[in-house]
Amino acid sequence: MSTYRLRNLLLPRSIALVGGSPRPNSVGRAILENVIKARFEGKLGLVNSRYAAISSIPAVGNLSELPFVPELVVITTPPATIPDLIDRAGAIGSAGALIITSGLGHGAGSLADRAEQAAQKYGMRLIGPNCLGIMMPTIKLNASFSAHMPVAGSLALISQSGAIAAGMVDWAAQRGVGFSGIVSIGDQLDVDLADLLDHFALDGGTRAILLYIEAVKDARKFMSAARAAARVKPVVVVKSGRGAVGAKAAATHTGALAGADAVYDAAFRRAGVLRVSDLRELFDCAETLGRVESPTGKRLAILTNGGGIGVLAVDRLVELGGVAATLSPAVHDKLDAVLPPTWSGSNPVDIVGDADAARYTQALETLLADQANDAILVMNVQTAIASASDIATAVTHFIGAYRKQHRRWAKPVLAAWVGAEQQVIETLSGAGIPNYPTEDDAVRGFMHLVRHREVVESLAAVPPAMPSSFAPDVEIARKIVGTALADGRTWLDPVEISRLLEAYDIAMVPTFAAASVDEAVGYAEQLFAQGATVVLKILSRDIVHKSDVGGVVLNLTTAEAVRNAANEIMARAKAVRPDARISGVIVQAMVVRAKARELIMGVADDPTFGTVIVFGRGGTAVEIINDKALGLPPLDLHLARNLIERTRVSRLLRAYRDVPAVKADAVAMVLVKLAQLAADVPEIRELDINPLLADESGVLAVDARVAVGRVPPKFKGSGPSNFAVRPYPSQWERHLQVKDGWRIFARPIRPEDEPVIHEFLKHVTAEDLRLRFFAPMKEFSHEFIARLTQLDYARAMAFVALDESTNELVGVVRIHSDSVYESGEYAILLRSDLKGRGLGWALMQLIIEYAKAEGLKMISGDVLQENIVMLEMCRNLGFEVKTDPTERDLCNVKLTL
C-alpha cells in the first residue's frame, strides 16, 4: 500500500540523526536543537564519528553502533554519503529515512537513484531529499530546521516548498492553530503527495488536509488519493504557477484553451479538492476547516452591530453562491422581544451600534435555534460604547455552552471582529471559533465549508465505463485512425472526421473532399439538387485554421460560383502558405440556423493529466472570448451538465426572448460521447468541433479537426491509459456458481454500497472481525466504511458478492497496490453464517485474476497464526506462507503472479 511503513516515519518511536553537528548555523545543528527543544518522547540516537557527544547527547560513529534500531533515520550529511547510509539503515532494520540534504541529482545512476535502489532492497520508505523536514506535534517531534514548532491540532500540511511550510508554522503560532502533522516532501524520491494524502485521510486526529503544490508527478495516483481523502475530510490546495502559459503551441482551439493551470483547476475540481488562490486564502481555509464542521446547507445568518458591514457581507455571500437566510415571522417576533425597535428587522440582523454583550448573546441564542439557517456569522465593529473584548468573551462562553449541549449537531459559528486587538483574536481562537479580520474573509471561510459538503456529495457519483444510451461503432473509429497512422499522417481528412463522428452518433453536416475543381462542382451540384446552399473550404493537412488563409467561402448557389471560389481558395492558400500541401477543397452543405448557438467542444492532451475535455463558446475568436470549462474524463450526463454550467455561454442555452431553449441534454450528450471516444481511441491527440450549432432541434457539427498520433501509455494499470481518472470497471462484473449451485453476483464496489456494508457487518461475528482487522472492532464509523466503499479503481479494487436470490451482501474481497504498482495487499471477509460454501475460494480466485490483469507481480497479505482456515486456503491457492520475523503471531503470505 502507499501508506506502507509511513506510520513508522511520521510517528516513530525512535529516531537517529545522522549529521547532527555542533557547528553554528548548520542544518545538522538546527535539527538536533529542534528535536531536543520539542522534547521528543521516543528514543533519540546521534551518529557523528567526530564527536563523543553533542548537546549532551552521546554520539556513535555508525548506525550499527546504536543501542537500538531507529525506526526513522534523519540524514543531513553531504550528498555522496546518502546511498551508503540508506543501505546501512536498511541493513539494521530501519523503516525509513528523512533526507534533508539536497543535490542528489535526478535520473538513472544519480545519487538519488542509488539511494532509492538501496531503500527498495530493504522495503524502506524515504521522505525527501531536499526538504525542510517533518513536524509531528502529537509526538513532540520536530525533525526540521523550521524556526518554530507548531502546537498539536487537527490540521495536516503537506508542502512541496519548505519555505511555505515554515511560513504556515509562523502564521499558526499567531492564530493558535494546531497541526496533526507538517511534512515537507522536497523532491519526492519515494513518499509523495498521494502517499501522504492516504496517511492523513486515515488519521483520526486530522480534521482537514492542506496542500501546497508546484507540480504533480503521478496524476492517476494523485487523483486516486485526493478523491479518497476528500470524501472523508476537506482537502485544500494552493498551487503556484497560475500564470503559466501552458499549451502555447497547440494546433487546435481546444488544445490552446487547455492551458496548464486550467487543467490543474479541472483536476482539483474532479478530485474534490478545494482550490484557493493564495496563501492568505489558504490560511483562512485553515482557520475555518481546523475548527468547525461543514454546515448542512448554505443559508447564512449574519449578526452585526454595523449595518454597512452586514450588507457588504450579504453582497459577498450572494456573489460566491451562498444564500442569506430568511427570518420567519416567529423568529422575527423573538428578536423583537430582545432587541431595540431600531434593529434591522431582517438578515443581516443589525442590533445597532450600542449593542452590548447581553444583546449579542440574546440575539445569537434566537438565531442558533432557528431552523431556517445553517450557520451564523457574528460580526463586531468596535465602538466607544461597548467593549469589543467583553462582547467576544460573552459570545465565546455562550457558544461553548451551546456546543456542549448540541455536540455533533451544533451549527458552525464564525466571527469577524473588525480591527480586533490580539487579545480578542486569542479569546475567539482559544474557544475554537474561526475568526477573520474582515467580512469578506469570513464569508469566504463559510463558503469553503459549503463547497466541501457539496464536494463530498458529488464524489459519491461514479461515472459508468460506457453510457448506456448509445452504442458507438468502436471498430470503425479505430480503423479510421489506424489507417491514418499507417499512412504516416497526423491529421484526419474531413471525410474521415465525418465518418468518425458518425460512428459515435454525433451529427455533422454532409462533407465531401474534392481533389479538383471539377470534382468540387460535381459534389456541389448534388447538394444544389437537395435544395442546399454550398460552402467551400481549403483542404490541406498543413492548414488547420482555414479562415486564417482566406480558405472559406460561404453562400455559394451556382456551379459557376463554386468553380470560381475553388480556384480562388487554392490560389490564396498557395500565396499565403507556399509550404503547405494543397489537396483540393472541402464541399459542405451550408447550414443556416438563425437561432442556433455556436459552441466549441473537443479533446486535448495534457502532459500531466492526460486527456482533457474542453467546452465553451465557439467561433473564430474562441481564444479571445476565452469562455471555457475543462473536465477530466470519463463523463456521465451529470458531470457533463456541470461542465457546461461553468461557462457563461450556458445561459444562452436556455430560452430567452423569442429564442427557444436548446434541446435538453443534446449538448451534454455530445460531451459524454467525446469522452467515450477518447477512451476507446487514445491515439486521438486533439479533437476540435468548432462550431457546434445547438438549438431546439438538437446539435450539428459544422467543422472539426482531429490530430492523431501514437502515444505510450501514460498511466499504469488497466482502463484507458490516457485517463487520470478510471471509469467504473463494469467489465469485471461476474456471475459465479459455488457449492450446491449457490449463485453469486460479484461486481466492483460502489459508493452507494455503504448501507449494505453496515448490514453485512451485523452478520459477521466479533471473532471473525478480529481475525480480519487484527483487533476487536466494536463500531464502524461512516469515515471507515467510506474508505472501504468509495474507490476510484486506480490503486485499489474491492469486489462485493451478492446472493442472486436475495440480493444480500455475503462477502467482500479487496486488493490495494503498493506505491510503485508492483504488488498488492489483499483482504477478504465473509458473512460468518455462510462460511464453508466455497465463496471465499471463488472470491480469492477473482482477486487473483484481477491482479494478473492489472500487471501486478505479487499478491501478499498478513494472516493471524490462529486463522487456520485462511492459511490453509492460501496454501491451496499456491501462496507461500511464512511466520512474520518481527510479529510471531502473524504469517506473511505471498503469491507470485
From TrEMBL:
SUPFAM superfamilies registered for this protein in UniProt: Acyl-CoA N-acyltransferases (Nat), Glutathione synthetase ATP-binding domain-like, NAD(P)-binding Rossmann-fold domains, Succinyl-CoA synthetase domains
Record's keyword annotation contains Transcription: no
Q: Establish whether keyword ATP-binding is in the entry.
A: yes
**What's an example of a GO molecular-function annotation for this chain?**
ligase activity
Name the UniProt key words of this record, in alphabetical order.
ATP-binding, Ligase, Nucleotide-binding, Tricarboxylic acid cycle
> The N-acetyltransferase domain covers which part of the protein?
744-897
The record's section on Pfam families has: Acetyltransf_1, ATP-grasp_5, CoA_binding_2, Ligase_CoA_2, Succ_CoA_lig
* Name this polypeptide is given: Bifunctional acetate--CoA ligase family protein/GNAT family N-acetyltransferase
Gene source species: Bradyrhizobium aeschynomenes
Q: What is the lineage of its organism?
A: Bacteria, Pseudomonadati, Pseudomonadota, Alphaproteobacteria, Hyphomicrobiales
